[in-house]
Amino acid sequence: xxxxxxxxxxxxxxxxxxxxxxxHYLKLTRQVLDKAIGENFYxxxxxxxxxxEFKNTKVNKVALGEDEISKIFxxxxxxxxxxxxxxxxxxxxxxxxCIRVSDLQLLR
Length: 108
What we know:
The protein is mostly helical. 58% of the residues lie in helices and 0% in strands. This is Phage integrase SAM-like domain-containing protein.
């Protein structure tokens, strides 16, 4: 693995995802590499990430308005359908102060 490989990997990621997501996966790659170096599984002349610069893009976050949330809350759905379950999980996530989806999925 060398710096050219890192840049090629970044280019590949950018074909499939946003800059910030690509950075996330590259940082995970760097963590795995650093762990391999720490465990003496990987030797290098020059660390592949030495000259690589992470460039984040500003994210324009748009939140739902109170009226939109109210419409979702009041929407009539048949109990037991997947959309009913999804709506309720979304509202639980919202009312639990934006609990992470991964934590929400662990709830029974």
